[in-house]
Design goal:
The chain is an alpha+beta fold. It is built from 1 helix and 2 strands; from the N terminus they run H-E-E.
Length: 45
């Protein structure tokens, strides 16, 4: 998702990988677009 010039291009596969990486690190995605999306942080045990 990096680019030297212009806008970065993110594919669905790249975004899915980023989301999975965050979730494995204890970050939970909550809510929906209509009700205010957000994240919840969990401490890993």
């Amino acid at each position: 998702m990096e680019t030297a010039e212009g806008f970065a291009v993110a594919t669905k596969a790249n975004l899915s990988l980023v989301q999975r990486t965050f979730e494995e690190a204890g970050i939970e995605f909550v809510g929906s677009i209509g009700e205010g999306p957000g994240v919840r942080l969990w401490k890993q045990s």
